[in-house]
């Protein structure tokens, strides 16, 4: 990342204009998903007995919340990247897994516009030493851009090839294309092409910045190609294959199996009552015995009586915050073996480190999704049976 130019810093006229325009775009992007969520809730109230309609409304809420969550994650990531504070968690991972994850993330966008998707990853299983979360997200950004900036029903192609040195993944669309003078600039933060008249203006202009930074952290590169507008675009990602040939490593798929099924005593403490209650409802659906508390002191008192095996603690609670509560829990007899999970809006590496130092075994960024919850519950079961 280059230093911001003086004229672009807040306080200068150009900097102020950039900031105001970014805030306006941000407000617009955050507001966008709220309208369908509110509408879907009204529909659910009006058609309580119509199962098909309420289910359709639920799907809308789920999709819009995912969109909102991703947006906020992108903003957090870009802030971390600007400070150079992003850390990779590398593991041996197959390219097919990364692309599958990316397709799952971008699925709703690809489906809603009925693009003709073709994926060709070759016959050989391509292994990489990579951070699966970050890299899947990067590919998902390329896929959702391909969907966003091309007409409904047009083809999107994902293609991969590899030699012993590098893996090359291309995401190509048949959309509006990119003018030659913008092919480099679109990777800068907040830069967007004015595709006037195409009705395709959404997003904050940070997706490609994240893609480039994540790919470069992996030692690779990404570039855009386009034969002009409208002639479609190709994004070409190159990743080195260093130390990435664990031919017989089926563990990527095998991770799930654990002591499935045993119900747990779970305590949730969160001063946001709705957040605590909804998480409790979800966990009760899975058969767990769940209690809620709304601040740290109440959590300590309930814990004493209830003897939970798993505790979710919000960090930003009044009276006794999550860190203090965690430390005090660890000092009690019932708190020695309990699986402590920080539930927080803060996703930075320093927050995770602080959680670990306070005695937490896990750290979940809100809103917790079903996958993460399942993983945490499995780990809690394993802690209890160890
Ligand atoms: P956003 O999509 O949120 O605006 P990005 O950083 O992902 O932000 O992309 C920056 C800009 O690059 C977009 O605004 C768009 O103008 C252009 N762009 C990205 N992908 C494509 C594509 N596949 N086809 C045409 N233009 C694209």
Keywords:
single chain, about 375 residues, alpha/beta, five-stranded mixed β-sheet, about 45% helix, binds adenosine-5'-diphosphate
Task: Describe it.
The chain has 386 residues and is of the alpha/beta class. 45% of the residues lie in helices and 18% in strands. It has 12 helices and 12 strands. It has helices at residues 13-31, 34-46, 51-82, 95-112, 132-148, 207-217, 251-254, 273-285, 296-306, 322-331, 349-357, 370-385; strands at 91-94, 116-120, 127-130, 155-162, 166-173, 221-226, 233-240, 265-269, 289-293, 310-314, 339-344, 362-365. The strands form 3 sheets. A 5-stranded mixed sheet has the order 2-4-5-7-6, covered by helices on one side. Strand 10, helix 10 (322-331) and strand 11 form a beta-alpha-beta unit. The longest helix is centred in the N-terminal third of the chain and has 32 residues, at 51-82. It is globular and about 70 Å long. 30% of the residues are buried. The structure holds adenosine-5'-diphosphate. Residues 141, 145-146, 149, 173, 175-178, 186, 192-193, 195, 203-209, 233 line the site of adenosine-5'-diphosphate.
